[in-house]
């Protein structure tokens, strides 16, 4: 069973709408397949597209959380062991400890927790 899935929303330079539509699809698929964590690459704005996708995705996350689509999320720049949400992520999905972006303050990614590893 796959615990962590990487999704690159920047692939093929989509519009914001295309990227968000893909995110919706990926969330549904990941939940059906019992994926614990989605690591989403959305960029941070150096090309112009990443910034818009990042803003749209980050605005959507609290609503997704409120509606139960996701458990919680951690912005890449807060993906550090000094943040409570990161520690919670590592407790629920210990395999994520091996990820190279921990403690790198990468604002071009967002990590989304769908469920804990046990179910």
Automatic annotation (TrEMBL):
Domain of life: Bacteria
Coiled coil: 6-33
Keywords noted in UniProt: Coiled coil
Protein name as annotated: Smr domain-containing protein
Organism from which the protein derives: Butyricicoccus intestinisimiae
